[in-house]
# Entry
Amino acid sequence: MRDVAIISFAQTDHQRAVTNANEVEMLMPVTAAAIERAGMTKDDIGFTCSGSTDYLAGTAFSFVSTLDGVGPWPPIQESHVEMDGAWALYEAWVKLQLGDIDTALIYSYGKSSPGPTHEVQSRQLDPYFVAPLWPDTISLSALQARALLEAGKATEKDFADVVARSRKAALGNPHAQLKWDKPADQVLAEPMLVDPLRKDDCPPITDGAAAVVLAADDVARAHCSRPAWIRGIDHRIESAVLGLRELTDSPSTRSAGQKAGVGNGSVDLAELHAPFSYQELILREALGLGGDVDINPSGGALCANPIMAAGLIRFGEAAQRIMDGNSSRAVAHATSGACLQQNLVCMLESDS
Amino acid sequence: MPGTQESTGLTLPKALQGVELVKSVRTPAELRYQYTAGAATTRFLTGLAQKKIMGERCPKCGKVYVPPRGCCASDGVPTTEQVDLPHKGTVTSFCIVNVQFYGQAMEVPYTSALVLLDGADLSLMHLLQEVAVEDVHIGMRVEAVWVDDDKIGPTLESIRYFRPNGEPDADVAQPGEHGWGELEHA
# Structure
């Protein structure tokens, strides 16, 4: 395998609604910052890969328009995934393994504010039996949370602890949208939104964008004093049929974690893409992360959830802490689909 | 249908035996959005409401985009300078629409044209009228015809169409080409 690392990361200050900019205007400062922080210009980028979905803002071919923001003329090598940007990063990593290019720009963005985001997301479900019922994201997640509680694997207090810890951690994250410091008991005193989930168990609705630069071998070393090397990366999918799944566990995360080599050494930090509080508990269990691991020091998707970018941000946040010298072995995770259907796990390490 | 039963080997309850196959289902979906035009498009639409066609210039390569999207597709940087463009230009390409389709507002045949406004580097698509379709040609000089002043608003429909302005044809070196010239960055 070729050594490939994340060498820079940038993200927006996430907001409930960006009304003064279209998608490309929201994105451009972020891609420019990621390229600049890598000590490069756009001409140094060998491959560009993005992740987004036109359904969010209801703008047909918006991903083509946003490409203008990276200067695709004369023509560049480019690809797009209708997935979170973490999957665009995965594609770029594969591309870099082929060896003919040394650098890649990955970006993703999501504007949830223009549309009814929880209904929009129901369009990704089975079109015959599920999508016609228009199940919103919160209700589907509540089904999963209920299963977890009834199985005796977690309590509402466990959910509230995740919320309190995450929102407090976000106080140290200038990009986070939702942050505060209050005890879990106060979270528990709040009324149910969709039982058994309280509003605080749910992510905010967010507009935002993120970008990452990947580089291989010596190019990474030349442009970054402490690259975040990708030592393992794997993606697993479970059935789209909710009734066929064991909702209180995440076997896809477990498999991906094993393939990525999470258990091959001690982990000091993990950025887990868990938009709903209870999902963090399922993911920790599946990845075998103990109490000594610093989970979501950024606050996670509970504190800023730009759909299609929130997974890539987990990769960027974990990598940034390695680049800054605050971690030497970190897990980055991204999820997609309903109730943790798809999971991508990456092992990031500093030079030992 | 009996055939279904035989082909799948499935034993159906009596009530479903001989029932016609479902050949299609309709699951209507409607989602409503509040579109965000963005800064550059807002500037462009605001200009139209004042009977102006405002392009935007790239600070690096100097190209002028209209309608502007807020960035230069060559340099990947925000456009920073507004340019008040003249309301006339040159046809760089066109098509004659002979097909009637649902929702069509125009009577066929009519002409859709790419018009490169003087001073712009990106052509604008609009209708071309007051000229017989067989007389339309690349290089034709045209001008904008606006709707009545009381109908003008922040929409491209403020321009009703373009029409020949009587100037001699312009030299269009390469049809369809609109100022990109050579691949100078290559």
